[in-house]
């Protein structure tokens, strides 16, 4: 039976790797079945089995070791070479399934049998023995292929040995036991940005023989035990050491790396300077307030150090330096300190524990006769025995003593200073309970007041912060806590369930917090207003911090996607910087400028009238410049324009070009321009600013800008040595600036508009246009007479009024060009009549204007224009084209036409008016000009002008004419009676249908309400299902009345046209449609009598009375009155019921009564 040297089970527990005393590796199952057996070294004698007695090292009982990869597919062995008596060893990587050798490393001097494969499988950790080189041990990392990836030295004494190496379950922390002459240490390293940081060093007495293990599921829990049976569990947590003024402190063994992130975003291990302490740093606290900069550190050897730093604006002198810090002088023993927190510039608060083997024994003098082991809350008072020199570092001469001590019966999770109260802090106990601590008074009673109960957390929160807020009132503190599972606690409730890190931002000088910034586990950065938290609007505005892709753009300002998974918030740049600093898992630092914070900082600067700072932020972050004007309203900005110019004087001129064109730009830029001219001394920069305001005006004042440039150019051409000349930029610079701000084509046209061809050529050249494009045109203009040149330029620029003035001023030789311009631009005719004084030419202009109006179908205006120029023939045609028969006959009189010609013209007009549907006007022509009495009366009857027809018939006292009027009146009355009766029936049907639909809808709505269903569930087809009693009513058909005479036919046609017109206006009513109820009401309203119908009814009734037809007149009046009253009553009932959703029995009663009256009327 071979002696076992070392064994190691696989991660899944199915296999067991055993190294025998004969140098064999055996892999067995959990049933002790041997899968395979291999020799660790290939050159072993006698067929691979070394039968010699193994030689054990004095430092380790086992010279071989086994470690499995996290997934169990490979395992690695470390064994000594069989033919070598030195410490030369070799790593071998084996495959799980076959036992085949996968890779072998080079032989090296390894220390002991320390071997650990990272659970993630990326690295294999081992230790090099460097004692032969008089150097400390070195931890080396191998890859699966047996090649070295990296290494680092542990900075221990040369004779130190590494006894144990262990990775935590998340593979981000590496712990080891390092044995020295006087003590053993447990060291914990962290890898980031290609650098290994020693984050913790815990010292034990050498005789304790300390060992440890990581918790298999909690990556930050370390379990240590000693030979005496003492077990200590360490629960680590990552604390971001970034101060309120964005100074980062990074612990690296015995150093603290200091970097002001507001000056330079240097990722660790890069730093501005470092603080060197006598031993490794275990806890650190910083105090950067009120022009005081202190850093306190507790060391692994039990020492306590304090250093005072100068103001951060003088830190450039410390770049690259390493400042050595001495331990404080103290007459008392502090114990092992944790949760080190500053209460004031001379007072600290910490948790100290005594009585453990890794702690200093408590002073009996301090505790008295009742001294006992355990945890204590103690105040540490510090004082400097040396005089502090301003601008220098004070790293020695500090004295510390314990001024107050309080025994703790519960475990403390964290301590946070109270910013609202001096020398006060909030202490969090296990379970999340919060108690307030005040210097020299001790702890307040937990749960003693309502306030304490509210501020407690529902679970332990390793990350706790206390901030000041001011909600338009006195300042108060708020407590926030983040637990291990990502729940952010506030005010006794859970604010967010998926938070990974959080911080706070303040845009105010007094550091009053305005925004909460948090990162979620889904890698989203959220900006939360403190006011929303105080007012309880977080859930409604941020939807439990779960981002959805269908949000609108303005809502996405609250959600920023972090592009690298697992990044954490480490700090914030407050005030105008408005930045969030995150650290990726690789260790790099990234700076994000959330748009919401940037806008808040800009608004804050505008409220404080810091225009220059706001302008710089707008430019830096590419924000719309209109925010500067629109924040308080552009009218208010006009009053502050002088202050804006005063502050923006040092800013570049092109800052003003960001304002977009809209209706307020002219006023704003005019105010800025006036302030520039009044307050800012003359300089090239001022002139460029003025040009900018002109170019960005709405519309752009390019001509005025070019006039200023032209003035500068004239000064240059004069060669004047005037000292004021240096107050202006060169003409070329000013022109290029204008071209940069504006469209080059618009500037070229503006130069042409000044009629300065030389300036236009300079503009074209500076805009880099091809000379072939503009030189021929400019040369052609230069050869023209002055007025003609301006005329052509105005035509190019579409300035037609100026072109007309110039062409008229050029003389009669260009009269044809003037007429062409007027005909192409008819809007110029009024101006042309004002400018042209020659009567003959005025007549030509008027006739051309009339021709244009005729072409545009404005015949009446054209006829008037023709009359002005005595063109009577064209005036006659124009009047006839628009149907103005009186104008036609009047112009015929002016033309002095013969009687036969006038008679013929009258007959033609009469026929045309009949075709146009104007029988009344045709009747006047027939009676007055044609002498056709019979035709005139027929036309009056067709026009339904009964009184006029009867008057003409009695005028000529012809019985046949009177009889025709009598018969037509009777037929028209009968037709109207039929229409009114039909309308009365329709009113009843429409109203009955309306009441039925309304009743059905309300009943269904009430039924749904009783079933607790929303009314929206009411389907359209269900709502329109009325009672079957109404299915036979054809409420949506239009009836007609047929009579025999020509007059009644005309009446019927008119009635049809009127009904169809009403139907089109009301729209179609579809039974069962959602809008049927409203459409029925509108249909009832449209059935009222129009003014034309009332006039026709009145005329017909008077005619019937004159003709002695009193009975038919009375019947017509009664039917018309009944229809009118019924329609008015139906509309009033519908309007009264449509505004309420209550079923009224009066509605049903009215409908039943109305139907009974309808039956009686029919009988």
From TrEMBL:
Gene Ontology molecular-function annotations: tRNA binding
Domain annotation ELP1 three-helical bundle: ranges: 964-1122
Domain ELP1 alpha-solenoid as annotated: residue spans: 595-652, 661-781
Pfam families recorded: A-sol_ELP1, Beta-prop_ELP1_1st, Beta-prop_ELP1_2nd, HB_ELP1, TPR_ELP1
Domain ELP1 first N-terminal beta-propeller positions: 51-216
Biased composition (Low complexity): 55-64
Domain ELP1 TPR span(s) in chain numbering: 790-951
Span of domain ELP1 N-terminal second beta-propeller: 250-570
Entry GO CC: cytosol; elongator holoenzyme complex; nucleus
Keywords, sorted A to Z: Cytoplasm, Nucleus, tRNA processing
InterPro entries associated with the record: A-sol_ELP1, Beta-prop_ELP1_1st, Beta-prop_ELP1_2nd, Elp1, HB_ELP1, TPR_ELP1, WD40/YVTN_repeat-like_dom_sf
GO biological process: tRNA wobble base 5-methoxycarbonylmethyl-2-thiouridinylation
Function of the molecule: Component of the elongator complex which is required for multiple tRNA modifications, including mcm5U (5-methoxycarbonylmethyl uridine), mcm5s2U (5-methoxycarbonylmethyl-2-thiouridine), and ncm5U (5-carbamoylmethyl uridine). The elongator complex catalyzes formation of carboxymethyluridine in the wobble base at position 34 in tRNAs.
Listed PANTHER family: ELONGATOR COMPLEX PROTEIN 1
Protein name: Elongator complex protein 1
Organism classification: Eukaryota, Viridiplantae, Streptophyta, Embryophyta, Tracheophyta
């Amino acid at each position: 039976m071979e002696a076992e040297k070392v064994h190691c089970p696989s991660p899944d527990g199915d296999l067991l790797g055993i190294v025998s005393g004969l140098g064999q590796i055996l892999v067995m199952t959990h049933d002790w079945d041997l899968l395979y057996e291999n020799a660790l070294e290939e050159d072993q004698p006698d067929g691979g089995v070394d039968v010699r007695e193994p030689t054990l090292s004095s430092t380790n009982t086992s010279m071989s070791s086994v470690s499995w990869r996290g997934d169990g597919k490979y395992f690695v062995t470390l064994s000594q070479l069989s033919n070598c008596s030195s410490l030369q060893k070799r790593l071998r990587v084996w495959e799980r399934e076959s036992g085949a050798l996968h890779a072998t490393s080079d032989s090296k001097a390894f220390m002991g049998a320390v071997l650990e494969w990272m659970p993630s499988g990326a690295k294999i950790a081992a230790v090099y023995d460097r004692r032969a080189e008089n150097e400390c041990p070195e931890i080396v990392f191998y890859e699966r292929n047996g090649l070295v990836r990296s290494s680092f030295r542990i900075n221990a004494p040369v004779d130190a040995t590494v006894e144990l190496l262990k990775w935590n379950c998340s593979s981000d922390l590496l712990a080891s036991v390092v044995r020295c002459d006087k003590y053993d240490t447990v060291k914990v390293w962290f890898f980031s940005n290609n650098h290994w940081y020693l984050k913790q060093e815990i010292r034990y007495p050498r005789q304790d023989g300390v060992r440890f293990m990581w918790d298999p599921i909690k990556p930050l829990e370390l379990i240590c035990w000693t030979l005496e049976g003492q077990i200590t569990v360490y629960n680590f947590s990552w604390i971001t050491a970034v101060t309120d003024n964005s100074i980062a402190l990074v612990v690296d063994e015995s150093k603290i790396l200091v970097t002001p992130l507001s000056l330079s975003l240097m990722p660790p291990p890069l730093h501005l300077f470092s603080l060197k302490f006598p031993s490794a740093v275990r806890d650190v606290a910083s105090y950067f307030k009120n022009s005081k900069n202190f850093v306190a550190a507790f060391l692994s050897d039990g020492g306590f150090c304090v250093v005072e730093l100068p103001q951060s604006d003088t830190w450039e002198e410390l770049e690259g330096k390493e400042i050595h810090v001495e331990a404080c002088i103290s007459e008392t023993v502090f114990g092992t300190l944790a949760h080190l927190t500053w209460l004031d510039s001379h007072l600290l608060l910490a948790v100290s524990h005594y009585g453990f083997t890794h702690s200093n024994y408590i002073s009996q003098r301090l505790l008295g006769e009742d001294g006992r082991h355990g945890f204590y809350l103690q105040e540490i008072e510090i004082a400097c025995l040396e005089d502090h020199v301003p601008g220098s570092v004070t790293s020695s001469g500090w004295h510390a003593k314990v001024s107050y001590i309080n025994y703790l019966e519960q475990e403390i999770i964290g301590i946070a200073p109270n910013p609202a109260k001096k020398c006060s802090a909030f202490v969090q106990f296990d379970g999340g309970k919060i108690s307030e601590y005040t210097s020299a008074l001790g702890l307040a009673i937990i749960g003693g007041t309502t306030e304490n109960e509210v501020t407690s957390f529902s679970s332990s929160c390793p990350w706790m912060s206390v901030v000041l807020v001011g909600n338009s009132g006195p300042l108060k503190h708020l407590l926030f806590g983040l637990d291990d599972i990502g729940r952010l606690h506030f005010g006794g409730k859970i604010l967010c369930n998926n938070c990974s890190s959080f911080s706070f931002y303040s845009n105010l000088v007094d550091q009053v917090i305005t925004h909460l910034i948090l990162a979620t586990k889904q890698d989203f950065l959220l900006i939360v207003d403190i006011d929303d938290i105080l007012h309880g609007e977080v859930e409604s505005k941020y939807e439990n911090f779960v981002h959805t892709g269908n949000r609108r753009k303005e809502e996405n300002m609250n959600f920023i996607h972090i592009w690298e998974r697992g990044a954490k918030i480490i700090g914030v740049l407050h005030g105008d910087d408005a930045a969030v600093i995150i650290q990726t898992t690789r260790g790099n630092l990234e700076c994000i400028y959330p748009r919401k914070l940037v806008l808040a900082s800009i608004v804050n600067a505008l409220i404080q009238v810091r225009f220059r700072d706001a302008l710089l932020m707008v430019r830096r972050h590419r924000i719309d410049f209109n925010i500067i004007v629109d924040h308080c309203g552009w009218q208010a900005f006009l009053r502050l324009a002088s202050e804006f110019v005063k502050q923006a004087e040092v800013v570049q001129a092109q800052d003003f070009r960001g304002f977009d064109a809209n209706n307020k730009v002219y006023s704003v830029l005019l105010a800025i321009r006036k302030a520039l001219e009044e307050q800012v001394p003359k300089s090239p920069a001022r002139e460029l600013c003025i040009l900018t305001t002109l170019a960005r005006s709405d519309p752009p004042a390019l001509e005025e800008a070019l006039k200023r440039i032209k003035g500068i150019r004239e000064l240059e051409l004069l060669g004047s040595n005037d000292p004021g000349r240096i107050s202006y930029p060169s003409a070329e610079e000013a022109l290029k600036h204008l071209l940069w701000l504006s469209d080059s084509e618009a500037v070229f046209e503006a130069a042409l508009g000044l009629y300065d061809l030389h300036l236009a050529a300079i503009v074209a050249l500076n805009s880099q246009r091809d000379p072939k494009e503009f030189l021929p045109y400019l040369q052609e203009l230069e050869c023209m007479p002055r007025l003609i040149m301006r005329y052509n330029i105005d035509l190019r620029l579409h300035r037609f009024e100026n072109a007309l003035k110039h062409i008229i001023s050029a003389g009669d030789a260009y009269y044809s060009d003037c007429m062409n311009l007027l005909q192409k631009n008819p809007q110029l005719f009024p101006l042309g009549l004002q400018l042209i004084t020659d009567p003959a030419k005025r007549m030509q202009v008027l006739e051309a204007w009339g021709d244009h109006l005729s072409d545009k179908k404005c015949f009446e205006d054209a006829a008037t224009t023709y009359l002005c120029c005595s063109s009577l023939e064209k005036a006659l045609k124009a009047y006839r084209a628009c149907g103005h028969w009186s104008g036609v006959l009047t112009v015929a009189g002016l033309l002095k036409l013969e009687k036969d010609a006038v008679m013929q013209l009258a007959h033609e007009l009469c026929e045309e008016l009949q075709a146009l549907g104007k029988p009344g006007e045709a009747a006047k022509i027939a009676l007055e000009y044609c002498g056709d009495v019979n035709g005139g009366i027929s036309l009056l009857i067709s026009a339904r002008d009964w009184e006029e027809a009867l008057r003409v018939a009695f005028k000529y006292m012809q019985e046949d004419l009177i009889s025709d009027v009598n018969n037509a009146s009777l037929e028209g009355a009968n037709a109207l009676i039929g229409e009114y009766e039909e309308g009365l029936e329709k009113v009843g049907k429409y109203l009955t249908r309306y009441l039925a639909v309304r009743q059905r809808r309300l009943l269904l709505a009430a039924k749904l309400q009783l079933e607790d269903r929303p009314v929206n569930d009411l389907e359209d087809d269900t709502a329109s299902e009325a009672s079957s009693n109404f299915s036979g009513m054809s409420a949506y058909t239009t009836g007609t009345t047929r009579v025999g005479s020509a007059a009644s036919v005309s009446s019927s046609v008119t009635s049809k046209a009127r009904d169809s017109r009403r139907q089109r206006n009301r729209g179609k009513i579809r039974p069962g449609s959602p809008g049927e109820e409203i459409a029925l009401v509108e249909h009832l309203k449209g059935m009222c009598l129009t003014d034309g119908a009332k006039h026709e009814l009145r005329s017909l009734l008077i005619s019937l009375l004159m003709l002695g037809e009193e009975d038919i007149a009375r019947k017509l009046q009664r039917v018309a009155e009944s229809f009118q009253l019924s329609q008015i009553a139906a509309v009033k009932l519908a309007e009264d019921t449509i505004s309420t959703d209550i079923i009224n029995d009066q509605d049903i009663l009215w409908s039943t009564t109305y139907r009974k009256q309808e039956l009686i009327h029919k009988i």
